[in-house]
Input
Amino acid sequence: MAQPGELALDSAAVGAGKYVTWPDLLVRVCQSSGSCRVFWGSMRVLVIRLICLLACQTFRWLVLHLARENPGWGYRRIHGELLGLGHKIGASTVWEILKKAGIDPSPQRADRSWAAFLKAQASAIVATDRFHIDTIFLRRWFVLFFIDHGTRRVHIAGITRHPTGPWITQQARNYLMDVGNRAEPIRFLIRDRGAYFTESFDAVFQAIGARVVPTLPQAPRMNAIAERWIGSCRREATDRILITGQNHLRLIVNEYAEHYNRHWPHRSLGQRPPDPLITPEPGPVSDPTSVLPARSARWPHPRIQAGRIG
Output
């Protein structure tokens, strides 16, 4: 007798003791039926159309990717680059893809604004500026800082009552010594046109191959990232505290800079701080690999020791 899942094909096969499975029988029935041949032919056409659709989507993504990554390229340049990559596609097709996506196919779409320059060269730009803080004893102190456009990391260079040219030049040398190898990618330094930024200050950064870019008169938006940090520091720290002197101001500014570098979320960084946290966040409870160490029974809770709370 036939085993489960098997079916005798005909009397000759039964006599010979040969059996076929259900899939084999289905294939033979489909081969002998005209309607089934039409069905499989339609499926073949459908698969071919699906493959063509996927290929068109791939071409469309590649064209848009090249256009957005290279805003100065026109549709002719993109067409040439695709041919160089081995993709045979017409120039009119590239033009149509860009037009449907709302991108101007002509090369005049390139944005040569100052904001576009800052965004494109963010990893190679460092800005510097100073701001003043008045104490409760009516004394004015000046804070000099540097900020990296790519990482938004702030470095407090120094605090003084008299920001002279030699003092600021020495703070620039100290800054480059502190950052070490991270100073290699610096190609541009943005500063204002204050008299305290002397030629010796510019020579410190020119020695490492950086170009000093002074801001235009009465154009604070040219150094917008540094100006924004000054506003954040004033609103969140210095304007909320009565500052007594230099040491008090240095403590407040350094604490805020550490908070800004390690915990302050930035939209340009995907709501992440410039520096990673020192202690990683605990994993989820469902993670079997993360095991919290048990607190020793010998020591009570750190806030409850020796019969007191605090």
Observations:
- The domain at 118-269 is CATH 3.30.420.10 (Nucleotidyltransferase; domain 5).
- The longest helix spans residues 34-69.
- The CA atoms of residues 75 and 105 lie 5 Å apart.
- The chain has two domains: 33-109, 118-269.
